[in-house]
Amino acid sequence: MQTGLTTHNEFVSLDDSNHVCKKLLSEGSGDLIDRPGTTMRVHYTGSLYPSGEVFDSSLDRDEPIQIRLGQGMVIKGWDVGLATMRVGEKASLLIYPEYGYGPQGSPPKIPGNSTLLFDVELVSADLSTADKTTDEKIAAATLHKDEGNNYFKHSEFALAKECYLSALKLFKNTRDTISAEHDTIKQLQITLNCNLAAVYLKLKDFSAAVDCCQKVKSMDMTNAKATYRLSQAYTGQGQFDDAVNMLQSHRDILVDVNVDAEISKIHKKQQTQMTNEKMLYSKMFKTKDTDAST
Fold first, then answer.
1. 56 noted as active-site residue
2. What superfamily does domain 134-271 belong to in CATH?
């Protein structure tokens, strides 16, 4: 991350625009602590630069501040600077307004457009709270998927649903740039949503099943499982024409489905529903006639 010396003696710029600079005061130990989400405990003294007027210090409270790296809990200059440190390291961070409190400042102690100097010490770091790497997310999601599949086999549909949802949440904010990783995640998301659709069909939550199937088809238009389950979900919602059209228009990919037999089943369900509705309406009218004659 170090990009060159600034005009300030012994300070090194941590970004191309020189918005935050660092001077090492004493070395730390261990690995660089730069994973977003890591819980850090930091001692600091903050002062205005160049006047040296101190506006805050954790040393006065004898208690380090606790933050999570890269989560927007502190000014950007801190997130950038702390990501270059090791446990036990002490450093000075020179932070310009763009990475500090900007033109608004932090009244009454920090005027607008202030350049700040922080003497910081990374007291401890807890990596257990850090965001998972892509490989870790894939491994965890695969484990959740396998657990969900086991619950599904034993008709524990509510538990299966929670497993699949937990797996999908791991990729909610993932922005992967490596093609191989992206393809792996995409296939996992397709499988998880297909499995989740099957769960929702069992739970008779047909709207949720439709949503899952449509997510799959947005990633893979020719996915046979999602197509078939979408037809089932439409049938469950009473959208019989949509269910039939889904099967008719995708015969070429539904090679393992007897499309004509499935369409026949849908028509029978539609006829049964129409018969039941007629009986219901007939009873309603009879009740009204009886009420009118009394």
1. yes
2. Tetratricopeptide repeat domain (1.25.40.10)
